[in-house]
Write a structure and sequence with these properties.
Helix content: 10-25%
Order of helices and strands: EEHEEEHEEEEE
Number of helices: 2
Number of domains: 1
Radius of gyration: 15 Å
Structural class: alpha+beta
CATH architecture: 2-Layer Sandwich
Amino acid sequence: MAGILGKFFSKHRAGRKRVPGRMPRWAGDGLYLFDVVGEANYQTKLEAVVGGRTRDGVEHSCVAVLLPEPRNRFDRKAVVVRIEAKTVGYLSRQDLPEYHAALRECQINGKPVCCRALIVGGWSRRGGSDQGHYGVKLDIAWPPELEQ
């Protein structure tokens, strides 16, 4: 994995990437039911993370970093989702109130929050005439809880 965050990742036997030990991590339930929004704007970046399209699409396990983006020109309470140092989407506005307090608490200590993520989709069939978009799902249990 390229970039500064790459040195913090290691692989499990099953090929899943472990979350960085130095970042607080959102507790997950293994269901990946939390959808990221805005991925349509980041398809090229998502394709670079997974290594390209396949006939059947992908289910790429990785780690997402969640960062408040107070200088976002559309929403000063925005929370950006980054994978391999690439912006791939945002938390939806309807989910922000529940998650923002915990994010803010971690930011006081200067540590970004991470969680397990799954990139799905990205198929390419019939000579490229049938292509699926990539989506990002986060493994975050409800109610929000941090593992330290």
